[in-house]
Design a protein that fits this description.
Elements (H helix, E strand, L loop, with lengths): L2 H16 L54 E6 L13 E7 L4 E6 L5 E7 L2 E6 L7 E6 L4 E4 L5 E5 L5 E7 L7 E2 H6 L7 H8 L3 H9 L2
Helix pairs in contact: 3-4
This protein binds 2-acetamido-2-deoxy-beta-D-glucopyranose.
2-acetamido-2-deoxy-beta-D-glucopyranose (NAG) binds next to loops.
């Protein structure tokens, strides 16, 4: 290959990599204008002359969430939906509260890697690598420990102590998204045909109906 072609290929690869997610910012910020009807990949920017400190401020992450639910778990997100100044910046924060033995059920963030740290309690974390290995990478974290859930992999958290637990995560998207495995598979609207699920999970249809009934 001549050197020009090599140079072009390298440039193209760099461009593709750079374009895989949000392009680099071309301005200081793009505070989300929730009222704009413009359809873009993300949210439209408000007039920068109207931007104030409040658009970059969220208060309340010190407050515990309500874990009185069957999972014993609560999420307090600070994503672009709560904090408009995060728009286009590719980062967000989330607080998790866990009752004793509470569980953050198996889920995936389609647009973000997550880095988690424990503020209180002992939390078991785990993610599963992709096919064909499907290897569970899991650990019990103590206060101050940090763990990573790589982008797009199924993961969970569980409070393995008899007291409440608290953790904070940073995620690499202002809108990380969440796909909860159980609700996607058994709680979709309309439901996935029993036959598809029975074959996928290699169980009979009554087991599938039982699982679907939970949603
Ligand atoms: C917590 O959630 C439960 C169940 O939804 C509700 O009954 C209870 O009032 C909530 N507690 C607080 C302090 O909001």
């Amino acid at each position: 290959m001549d050197s020009q072609i090599v140079a072009f290929c390298l440039l193209a690869m760099t461009c593709i990599q750079a374009m895989a997610f949000e392009p680099s910012p071309l301005q200081d910020f793009c505070v989300a204008d929730y009222t704009s009807s413009a359809r873009v990949n993300g949210l439209a920017c408000m007039d920068s002359k109207l931007v104030q400190a409040e658009h970059f401020t969220y208060s309340g992450l010190h407050l515990s969430g309500n874990t009185s639910n069957p999972l014993g778990f609560s999420v307090t997100p600070v994503t672009v939906a709560q904090l408009p100044g995060l728009n286009t910046l590719g980062i967000a924060l989330v607080r998790f509260d866990y009752a004793p033995w509470g569980v953050a059920p198996l889920h995936v963030h389609p647009r973000a890697t997550e880095i988690i740290t424990v503020l209180e309690g002992s939390i078991q974390v785990g993610f599963v690598t992709s096919n064909p290995d499907n290897k569970l990478i899991s650990k019990v974290l103590q206060k101050g420990d940090v763990f990573i859930f790589p982008m797009g992999l199924v993961h969970f958290q569980r409070n393995v102590g008899n007291g409440n637990a608290v953790s904070i995560s940073a995620v690499s998207s202002q809108n990380p998204g969440i796909v909860i495995v159980a609700s996607s598979v058994f709680g979709s609207v309309p439901g996935i045909d029993d036959d598809v699920l029975a074959k996928a999970f290699q169980v009979d249809k009554s087991t599938i109906d039982n699982l679907k009934a939970q949603f």
